[in-house]
What we know:
With 135 residues, chain A is mostly helical.
Amino acid sequence: xxxxxxxxxxxxxxxxxxxxxxxxxxxxxxxxxxxxxxxxxxxxxxxxxxxxxxxxxxxxxxxxxxxxxxxxxxxxxxxxxxxxxxxxxxxxxxxxxxxxxxxxxxxxxxxxxxxxxxxxxxxxxxxxxxxxxxx
Amino acid sequence: xxxxxxxxxxxxxxxxxxxxxxxxxxxxxxxxxxxxxxxxxxxxxxxxxxxxxxxxxxxxxxxxxxxxxxxxxxxxxxxxxxxxxxxxxxxxxxxxxxxxxxxxxxxxxxxxxxxxxxxxxxxxxxxxxxxxxxxxxxxxxxxxxxxxxxxxxxxxxxxxxxxxxxxxxxxxxxxxxxxxxxxxxxxxxxxxxxxxxxxxxxxxxxxxxxxxxxxxxxxxxxxxxxxxxxxxxxxxxxxxx
Lengths: 135, 241
């Protein structure tokens, strides 16, 4: 079977990119700009790239299995799939966040409930809260 | 024991209509409490509602119709209300029909009673595109539940304690409850009935279903939502309520 493996220059360049990504992610986590729970996907991605590029037989096996003819194409395909997974993962986190925000807002509305004009509320604390949230 | 009934009115920038609607509702039934869920209005909606005699639940951020309505159900659940009537703030629903809905809820042993535009009362005329959308919803509700509901899109409904607790829970859709909710509650075993009511065109302001793209997008979302409702297991509902 005739396959275009990566040239040494391509290999070196890809490895460098993978290491930069890894370093960037680790630095973000270290500075607490990125939470650990969201960093593992990116760490895994850079490690996978390093393994694939650093160990050509594995890459060759994947190329053969996917039916691609070029190593670079296979890398691209894997990257795009990975990015799609990350996007969906982000959407689930967004959904979770939105549900929590909604519940928070609703609970707050209940706490800040204002009685109709002309009625006295029995709970003075509630009135204070309503005023505080309006300010 | 005295039955506690709450009228829930979600409102977003409805200063022009809400005062009248609340006054008409109180006139129609002085025994009910009224809660206006102020969905982050930028006008005087909240102040007018307070003056007109409603409890105001001020949402700190705009949640949209479904989220606002659900806030009302949470309030009803937390404060021990036995019945809720959903009433739109914009004057489209005739407040006098609240009593008909409640009577049907109590006498017919229903968990949810829908006020229908299409059962003879009133002269509501939907524009052709909206009429087609409503027809599609009607058909989908019928084939999925086997029960004919003439107006599954109606937001004028009365609900008992069982339905209130279900609507306050996380199974309730956050964006816009419609036929998908009716399909869900019937799959859960709740009894849904329908009576004719009077509805009007809006008195002032703009409907949330306006424009060209929005209704198409809405239909798309609703079809998706109904499909997903059918894929999910029906939610568990307590028998006692």
